[in-house]
Amino acid sequence: MKQLFSTDTQAIFYNEHPLPIQRMLDYDWLCNREKPSIAAIVNPNRSGMHKTFFGSAEILIPVYTTITEAAAAHPDADVMVSFASMRSAYATSLEAIMTKSIRTVAITAEGMPENQTRDLIRASAENDTWLIGPATVGGIKPGAFRIGNTAGSIESIIEARLYRPGSVGVVTISGGMSLEIYHIVAQQTDGVYEGIAIGGDTWPGSTLLDNILRLEADQGVKMHVVLGEIGGTAEYEIAKALKDGRIKKPLVIWVTGTVARQFATEVQFGHAGAKSGADDESAQAKNKALKDAGAYVPASFNDLGKLIGKVFSEHVSAKRNYREPADNGYRLPPLEFADALKQNKVRRPTSIVSSVSDDRGEEPTYNKKEISTFLNKPFGHLLNQLWFQGRFQKPARIFWNTPLKSWPTTVLRLQPHITQSSLHAQVKIWLTRLQPGCLPSAPDMAVPLTGLPDGHLNQWQPGFPHAILYYR
Amino acid sequence: MAQKAIREFTAKQLLYHYLPLYLNGFNQKYQGIAIDADDVHRYSLPGFQNGYVAKPDELFGKRGKNNLIYLSDNADDILRWIRDKSAQTVTVLRGRGDRGISGKLKTFLVEPKVAHTGEYYVAISAKRTHNELYLSESGGVDVEDNWDKVITVQIPFSLEAKPLSEDIRKELWGRLQSDNRDLLIDFASALHQVFSFLDFTYLEINPLVIEDGQYHLLDCVARLDDTAEYMNETKWAPAQVDFPKPFGTSDSEAERKIEKLDAKSGASLKLKILNPNGSIWMLTSGGGGSVIFADTVGDLGFADRLANYGEYSGNPTTDETEAYADIVLTEMAKSSAKKKVLIIGGGIANFTDVKKTFTGVISALKKHESMLKKDKVKIFVRRGGPNYEAGLSLIRNAVTAMGLPIEVYGPETYMTAILAKATQALS
């Protein structure tokens, strides 16, 4: 069976999600990849370029509106990493499966209808495409390729030595538990060769056994570590494959959900496939069947780590031809400016000085107030801070709001013939006139200033946006 | 978020509405009446020629064997039976060796009685690459004992609602014997179309009765894929589909509160109280990790002292975590256990911010400070993931400042190691 990922693998990333895109590229940088693992991005709403970092260099990744276009321009990209929403995941994944150059499709969407997933399984079998997911964080091939958010932060990737390949193949159902298992494997063995989380849906695109058999055929894998789950019968297929000799490498497995016996009624755990109820789908029954078939099964999750270590030292590292995998180290991607600032690691001189606004901190400020504080407040509030450094009290601010809000309607009342576009043009002109100094020198007192306490009139001064009152 | 059982009444409404589209000559109206036991005195039943059948409609089978099917020609009799049954607590055995499940019956179904001779069994189950069709001419309550007489065929999966292929029809025709086999095959074919069309994942008609060329669906078990709900609003509308909880599920107030919280939140918040007077209380995170924590308590031999199963995951906000922890701690305060431990555990998160969620947990702990002190609660923490160092030191300092014992561990410690320590503290 073919390998899904190598150090040259490039992907088409579906949906322009800046964070997972940056995380994939940071991982590439960490494990010394020469070129970024994302060749193109598909965003149904726009085409152009996506600006992101590869190391400290800013790079542009082309953005296309369809998968077909992206694949035609990048025929070497044979993976699609899909961050499509639950509702668009089916159609877009099907398009990817039908695209000849795409050989692997990883789907993160949660809550896809089961018949849609089953149709993707049918199509992927007909087109010889490998599916990972849906409803999963994805997977990782240490030293080569990371799907989206798999394995979390750069720190945890380094702690779990996921920047270079080890010799253990890991397959889990849960994406959330995958990092924990990679960590355990890193502590007990020479590390992870490839880790796949197949996702918790009833019908995962590729099953536990599909992935185990693929890794079984891979020379780099010396042993398997598998985390199964209550519900379904996928683990019995593994037991069968152990018995009939399709799996020969040592396999350590634990099926979670033994606690379900404590529940009197059927319980749906966190994953769609994880349902207590049927006896032969219980964790206990599956653990026993696997043990009988020759898998290494601990007595409890508590002992899983030790058992992995034992099997590794007895069956992998004790072999005469065993060689510890090379560790060429990693290069840390530069810190994000905001993170570095938080950690007090950088400073930067300002290029423009403004007495009103300031973007040096975590959040930009207007007149020393965070701009988010203006979000839910009337516009007059912002005007007060920007033009008058907050000198005015509440009644005045409220007064400004009224004309600001009623501008367009007022204009329409006074000039009924006006068109929409010329109204906009006029509003624009007024806004430029709102600059201090280029305004009429006195308010048009024909507009009655009812409701405004007398005292506030004393606050007229140069810079007041007379135009507002004038046109009111 | 998965395959969910629906009531017999709901399933039959859908079947009687859609079968006529695919099955020539099937044009009956569904006459069943769903009865809410709380309101039984307000129902008056229409006259049925052959009398009535009444049974509970609460997602469990084997009602005949549990003595929960009632036949009568008299409508008042039927309503009286429902009133009596719903007043008692009944114990239902769902299979051989089942210890049974008890509860009060709330929903009943009344249908016209059908006099019949032969009973057939038809079921369809969704598998990974195909749908499996089960057919038997020896249907009825003992179908499981006669499982060797059940014919199984595999129908390749297709998104379209296709009738059975000629090959499959021929195969079935060869294997069936009764005079009604053509009608039975037509029915199975139409049923398969409805099955595909409406996103059923399991459908069982047992018994199916064919009298004088007319079909009668006497009993029915069905599951729908609730993730397909958003695309099926129109298709499912004839039945007002809902997904009731299995019989015997008695939610505590705390569980209902968490359910409401979960429905409002983008994150996932779950709680199941196992033993209200338990000693081991869990504030665990992660769908996979929280199950493992609960498992391990059982594996250590403390299953009977485990108070709850629960999880918060999917990066909940500080406020959501606080509300969640507050509800769990309120329940913990009510527990009459002499010794109590609190497990704040989780795996190494991919992206849930540990500092953010722990800030919420700490606020709840502060709120329950007096209870924690009074019960001398020992707290054990293990967590990894983004900002875990900050989160762990926050919780250590806050709890130590309250003068309470706490042990805090990060990803360097094996995930479930705190449970061995916690159970030691109990014994």
UniProtKB/TrEMBL annotation, chain A:
Pfam families linked: Ligase_CoA (PF00549)
One GO BP annotation of this record: acetyl-CoA biosynthetic process
Cell compartment(s), UniProt: Cytoplasm
Superkingdom to which the source organism belongs: Bacteria
Record keywords: ATP-binding, Cytoplasm, Ligase, Lipid biosynthesis, Lipid metabolism, Magnesium, Metal-binding, Nucleotide-binding, Transferase
GO CC annotation terms, alphabetical: cytosol
Molecular function as annotated in GO: ATP binding; ATP citrate synthase activity; ligase activity; metal ion binding
Gene3D superfamilies attached to this UniProt entry: NAD(P)-binding Rossmann-like Domain, Succinyl-CoA synthetase domains
Domain ATP-citrate synthase/succinyl-CoA ligase C-terminal: 173-295
Chief location bin: cytoplasm
EC number: 2.3.3.8
Top EC category: transferase
SUPFAM superfamilies on file: NAD(P)-binding Rossmann-fold domains, Succinyl-CoA synthetase domains
Protein name per the record: ATP citrate synthase
Organism, as annotated: candidate division WS6 bacterium OLB20
Automatic annotation (TrEMBL), chain B:
Enzyme Commission number(s) of this protein: 6.2.1.5
Pfam families: Citrate_bind, Citrate_synth_N
Location of this chain's protein in the cell: Cytoplasm
InterPro entries membership: Citrate-bd (IPR032263), Citrate_synth_N (IPR056749), Succinyl-CoA_synth-like (IPR016102)
Catalytic reactions on record: oxaloacetate + acetyl-CoA + ADP + phosphate = citrate + ATP + CoA
GO biological process, one term: lipid metabolic process
Keyword tags: Acyltransferase, ATP-binding, Cytoplasm, Ligase, Lipid biosynthesis, Lipid metabolism, Nucleotide-binding, Transferase
Matches recorded under SUPFAM superfamilies: Glutathione synthetase ATP-binding domain-like (SSF56059), Succinyl-CoA synthetase domains (SSF52210)
Domain ATP-citrate synthase ATP-grasp: 2-236
GO CC annotation terms, alphabetical: cytosol; succinate-CoA ligase complex
Domain (ATP-citrate synthase citrate-binding): residue spans on this chain: 252-424
Main location class: cytoplasm
GO MF entries: ATP binding; ATP citrate synthase activity; succinate-CoA ligase (ADP-forming) activity
Superkingdom field: Bacteria
Protein's recorded name: Succinyl-CoA ligase (ADP-forming) subunit beta
Protein's organism: candidate division WS6 bacterium OLB20
